[in-house]
Amino acid sequence: MSVPLLKVGAVLSTMIMITNWMSQKLPALVGLDQHFARPGTSEKIISVLYPGEDEGWQVYGSVRGKCVCSIMTPAQGACGGDPRHCRLQQLSDHVLNVSQYMELLNQRTAQDLQQLKDSETLLDALETRLKTAHDDPHSVTTKSLQELRWSVSQCRPLRALLGRLRADAGQLESLKEELEKLKYSLSVLQEHFTLRHYQRLQQRASVLQQHLHTCSSQLGCGRLTGISAPLTVRSSGSRFGSWMMDTVIDSSDNRVWVMDGYLKGRRLVEYQSLGDFASGQNFIVHHLPHPWAGTGHVVYNGSLYYNKHHSNVLVRYDLASGGVQQQRSLHHAGFNNTFPYSWGGSSDIDLMADEMGLWAVYTSIAHGGNMVLSRLHPDTLEVERSWDTGFPKRSAGESFLICGTLYVTNSHLAGAKVHYTFHTATASYEYTDIAFHNQYSHISMLDYNPRTRALYTWNNGHQVLYDLTLLHFIRTADDAWDAETPHTD
Ligand SMILES: *[C@@H]1O[C@H](CO)[C@@H](O)[C@H](O)[C@H]1NC(C)=O
Ligand SMILES: *[C@@H]1O[C@H](CO)[C@@H](O)[C@H](O)[C@H]1NC(C)=O
Ligand SMILES: *[C@@H]1O[C@H](CO)[C@@H](O)[C@H](O)[C@H]1NC(C)=O
């Protein structure tokens, strides 16, 4: 089962719909709306393209305890792909014919009535003449007899009129029958439309639900196709900084970690939840043993990973015990604002996490300033594998990883977009054009969190979230669908 290219347009337009829906629901999804949010549940966006019968149904959904899916029916012919629509069309044509015919009858009857009225005057005159003749037989002359005959001849068309009226009465009778039949057909059709149509819709809905279920269990890594409108969670701190949530630990840990500033900071602020962070309450301040550089920190599986000030040393700080568990130099990596992102700020080394693990983005003189992506062992901080992405680090606004694909923005200023992607699976790159709204015009941190499936940014002293549209192509078996072929009536 292949996916024709043709459908991609339709897919993308529906994606926009979903994205809009997502942006409306975003506060609830990220847990700001306490009424809807369940603590510790994570958001997953599932999109299914179903290449089924008739060029297919397309299913998209968002799963978070509940499923939301939208269905696009395939492009259809004159009858809308449903024989009932054809029947309905025929019936309404028929009704049109019948009503046109009734109009005709109506006009004819009106003419006939006028003629009858004219004849009435004639009959009156005839009656008077006959009465005079009867009362006084002597008054009857040849002339008056001629006049009487003429009057009678004038009444002759009345016979034809009578015949026509008789015929019309017959027509009316058959039209009445016709209308009865139409009424019946319509009621049968209505029954189908309500009961059977409803049943079929229900059947389809349950099949779709199965598909969504199958798809959520098969959910692989999605490809980024859209970024929602920004949601400002809070406005706090200086222009540059970093805020994050654990990218691995699930359920109950909804703590938010904040590191304000990019130079020599040691103050790590912990909030109990996103809600606490948004309202600025319930926080604990930790002091890190070593100061940090830049904003590329990440919280991964209960540890904070960051770049030690004035060095290319990576530090793993255990959040539970408050102790440094590991320190290791990232060999040859530039530091001290030698190879920062476009905004500067000693953002030489950017640590990040995705569905596949812990990573570092940096560069060195040997790589000529091109962004290097390295997979790190989370315990030892050793480099497991590296890729040269081919994109100059100083020209990048920021970068983030989703499912082993690095997404690079072209600026930290207004008008920034996701401009370049590098796939580690194939070691290949491509140029992209994924726009997003850089609301406060200066992004100093941009990271994807695979657990909450959102983008976290620090934008000119505002902490902002974006939701993402990830496109998944998931193939499902046809067999369940074939049973769904509409029956002809
Ligand atoms: C309506 O009338 C036209 C011409 O009079 C005829 O061709 C057509 O079949 C009629 N349609 C129906 C549904 O009776
Ligand atoms: C997270 O840490 C626990 C031990 O604290 C370990 O068992 C688990 O494998 C780690 N998960 C990842 C994804 O590294
Ligand atoms: C880092 O840069 C500062 C000033 O820009 C300089 O004083 C310092 O010596 C540098 N440190 C290293 C280790 O290069």
Automatic annotation (TrEMBL):
Pfam families: Noelin-1 (PF12308), OLF (PF02191). Disulfide bonds join C221-C403. SMART domains: OLF. Keywords: Coiled coil, Disulfide bond, Glycoprotein, Secreted, Signal, Synapse. PROSITE patterns: OLF. Residues 162-192 form a coiled coil. Residues 220-472 form the Olfactomedin-like domain. InterPro entries: Noelin_dom (IPR022082), Olfac-like_dom (IPR003112), Olfactomedin-like_domain (IPR050605). This is Olfactomedin-like domain-containing protein. The lineage of its organism: Eukaryota, Metazoa, Chordata, Craniata, Vertebrata.
